[in-house]
TrEMBL record:
Residues 206-320 form the Asparaginase/glutaminase C-terminal domain. It comes from Pseudomonas xantholysinigenes. GO terms for biological process: amino acid metabolic process. Belongs to the asparaginase 1 family. PROSITE patterns: ASN_GLN_ASE_1, ASN_GLN_ASE_2, ASN_GLN_ASE_3. GO terms for molecular function: asparaginase activity. This is Asparaginase.
Length: 329
């Protein structure tokens, strides 16, 4: 851990900097001036030196796409390697904040700088907003020292970038890292193919919960759309409709065709342990890879980083099963 001396604030949009329009709150530029005005009027402004860059275009995080993850990754790497920043604070909307934190955790493996994401439930100009508390708290963390890697700060909590989820849509303490079973050995090192310098490409991914009535036709329709990876949210410890042979065949055929299918628990405090029930074992035998106690956000972000790096299905499954940055262990 070390104190950051030259911080980049990367403003991507989101509620924290939104202004009212005729259609409702929308992302707005000029947030650096608003920050500096606020800090000049407050007596306990952080002393860390910072500059701000606005990502173009600014977006409501509900519109977040893989291309935006890649743009954030590029901006962060450029800030550290070209511009000499030794830390990056990302201001982000809350709807997909946990997804971006997870994705960046894998896109920035090996980067020698701390990256912290924060946002707010109310805009910075709103009465009783949480924006300034979250922003000042994040800046204070950079001043006191942070470990390299990606983390999320919200409502006084510092959370691992791959362990956080948004659990509330209105309360200020919207993000939590719930206890989830951890079961994987740590990768001995990060391969060059997964290093932050490795370019990534967009990937066709999907997330699908298991539910009563899920049929083979649903799965085959999804696989026929060309998805390269699927996060399957199973019941409890990794179970599903194991007496539906057509559904099992659809999963097996997709895996044989090169689709990577990973299983996580749809329970907020659950984990996949296939061997607990026969229903889980039959799913595993179709070719599913256990995500253990990984969150949906972490599983999706990791699949994106692995397949986006050009790994084939077997290699992607190998690295998915190992802990790369604390997401599984």
């Amino acid at each position: 851990m070390r104190a950051v001396k030259n911080l980049l604030v990367l403003y991507t949009g989101g509620t924290i900097g939104m202004l009212q329009t005729a259609e409702g709150l929308a992302p707005a530029g000029g947030f650096e001036a608003r920050m500096r005005e606020h800090f000049s009027a407050c007596g306990d402004a952080p002393e860390v030196q910072w500059s701000l860059r606005e990502l173009n275009p600014l977006i409501d995080s509900a519109n977040m796409q893989q291309a935006n993850w890649l743009a954030m990754r590029d901006a962060i790497v450029e800030a550290v390697e070209r511009d000499g920043h030794d830390g990056v604070l990302v201001l982000h909307g809350t709807d997909t904040l946990a997804y971006s934190a997870a994705a960046l955790s894998f896109l920035l493996l090996g980067l020698s700088a701390p990256v912290l994401l924060t946002g707010s439930m109310l805009p910075a100009g709103a009465p009783d907003s949480d924006a300034w508390a979250n922003l000042i708290g994040a800046l204070n963390l950079f001043e006191s020292g942070l470990e390299d890697g990606v983390q999320l700060f919200f409502h006084g909590q510092l959370l691992h970038g791959c362990r956080a989820s948004k659990l509330r849509s209105e309360a200020f303490d919207a993000f939590k890292a719930l206890p989830r079973h951890r079961d994987s050995e740590r990768a001995p090192s990060i391969p060059a193919r997964l290093d932050y310098r490795q370019p990534r490409q967009p990937v066709k991914l999907a997330v699908l919960p298991v539910f009563p009535g899920l049929g083979a036709e649903h799965l085959r329709g999804l696989f026929d759309s060309g998805v390269q990876g699927l996060v399957l949210e199973c019941y409890g410890s990794g179970t599903g409709p194991s007496d539906d042979q057509a559904l099992l065949d659809a999963l097996h055929d997709a895996r044989q065709g090169g689709v990577v299918i990973v299983a996580i628990s749809q329970c907020p405090e659950g984990a996949v342990v296939f061997d607990t029930y026969a229903a889980g074992s039959r799913l595993r035998d179709t070719g599913l890879v256990s995500g253990g106690g990984m969150t949906r956000e972490a599983a999706l972000g990791k699949l994106f980083a692995l397949l986006g790096a050009g790994l084939d299905a077997d290699s992607a499954e190998h690295w998915f099963a190992l802990d790369l940055c604390g997401e599984r262990a």
